[in-house]
Every structure is written in C-alpha cells, then in structure tokens.
Amino acid sequence: MWLIAPSSPSVRAAFPDLHGDIERIVTALDREPAAVTIDRIGGDQQTVPFHRGDLAYAVRGALYNPRRVADLPAEIHHAAETANYSYFAQALYGRSAAILGEALSLGLHLSVYCREDVPRLSDVDALAATAGTLLGDYLMRQYQAGCDAWPVEPAPMDWYRPFSSDIPVLLLSGRYDPTTPDAAAELARKSFPNSAHLVVGDAGHGAGAGCAREVVEDFLVTTNLPDDEAICRDQRIEFATGSR
C-alpha cells in the first residue's frame, strides 16, 4: 500500500510525506497507546486503548475493500496531523464485530489455522518474518492466544506434501490484498502448469468482481483460460485527496 499510493500523482500532491505520516503515528503509539472512543452496536460508546498493532490490523482490514483503500492516504494523514485515531479504531471494531457475528464461523476458522498454520511457525520465525513491518508479530500473537483457547491437533507433516495437477486453474489476485498477495499465487502456480494468473489492479482480497468477472464466468462455463493475463492489471483506484 505505502509503495503504491504515493505513486499516484494526486496522492503525492495532497500528501507529500505519507511515509513520514505513518512513522509519526507509529512513534506516537509505540510511546503510549491512545485513548479512543468507539460507537458500539446498540448505540452506546466506549473509550478503549488503541495500540500500534490495532492500527496495523485496522489498515490490513481496510486493504480488503477498495473503497476503504481509496480513503487510506487521507485518513492516515489526518491521524498524523491530529493524533485522532477514531476512524481506524471504529473500522477495527466494525470488522471485529462482523467476524464475531455472522460473517465468519470463528470456530471453523480457528480449527483450520490452529491445525495447519500456527503450529508451523515459531516465535523466532514470526519475529524474523515480520521485523520492520507495521503489523509486526501482532497477528501471530493474536492467533497464538486464540489457539491456546481452541486446542486442536496439529496436522501431520505429510499434509504439506507438494501437490501438482494439470487441470485448468484460474488464479486471481487483488493488487492490495494483504492476506493472499500475487506473490503467493505465483508460488502456487508452480504446481499448476495449465494455469493463468490475473492481478486486478483495483482489488483487495476479493478479486473476482469488476474487471475479472467476465473472465471468471467464462472460465467456470468453459474452463478456457484468458489469453491476456494483463487484462486487469492496469485498473486503478481513485484515491480520496480532499481535506478530511
């Protein structure tokens, strides 16, 4: 996100030091968590501490949705200028409420992660892999705590054995996806020689709509792979640059 948004001339003009804005926010939250007030479901308000990890996870959640991606530079600049993190705290609360509501089966989610992913990554590996990032090992620690409360047996090692197939495979990636980036699809593609990979330039975690929709529909009906894999790569998000 930080490498892509500043490449937009309008973003550069409106927020010439976006990286500096992020650094100022991180420095402030590392020094002391902020107190922010959120509007809870039901209408009441609550003041809660807001840490660097909370900010990072809120930004990560925003990257799922292109409309929220469009607002990120302006909201980051506003937070850096005012030390007001309400936008990100409210977004984090809304996402968490949705996950704990009906948007996600949390038990199933943890049953998969705690069986297949978390046991394979040590604290040392997590720190090394996340060093120098905005999120750090925040998410790993969150999942470790969840798995401590949701014990399942780790998957056997042969579960991870390499798999290959020549069936037609259409891989989709959103340019802003923080969870399954295009590099992950390219890695998976090594196991599927009869495949195509579309990177959708204005998409987040869900890349099957918009530009890619017609390609997806055609593939589901015919299993034909697109001739032009770059068809959606140049799609762009129009970032909000007005005063907050």
Can you walk me through this structure?
By secondary structure, this protein is mostly helical. It has three domains: 103 residues, no CATH class; 57 residues, no CATH class; 60 residues, no CATH class. Helices cover 45% and strands 10% of the residues. A two-stranded antiparallel ribbon has the order 1-2. Strands 3-4 form a two-stranded parallel ribbon. Helix 3 packs across helix 5. The longest helix is centred in the first third of the chain and has 17 residues. The two termini are 20 Å apart. The relative contact order is 0.13.
In short:
The protein has 244 residues and is mostly helical. Helices cover 45% and strands 10% of the residues.
Provide a count of the helices. Answer: 10
Q: Could you say how many structural domains there are in total? A: 3
Number of strands: 4
- Helix/strand order, N-terminal first: HHEEHHHHHHEHEH
What is the share of helical residues? Answer: 40-55%
Radius of gyration: 20 Å
Q: Proportion of β residues? A: 5-15%
Largest sheet: 2 strands, antiparallel
Strand order of the largest sheet: 1-2
Compute the separation of the termini in Å. 20 Å
The SS-based structural class is mainly alpha
Uncertain regions spanning at least 5 consecutive residues: none
The gross shape turns out to be globular
Mean pLDDT: 90
Q: What tags apply to this protein structure?
A:
244 residues; mainly alpha; 3 domains; 10 helices
How does the SSE layout of this entry go?
Layout: H1 9-14, H2 18-31, E1 34-39, E2 45-50, H3 52-62, H4 66-82, H5 86-100, H6 106-116, H7 123-130, H8 138-148, E3 169-174, H9 182-189, E4 195-200, H10 213-222
Parallel strand pairs: 3-4
Antiparallel strand pairs: 1-2
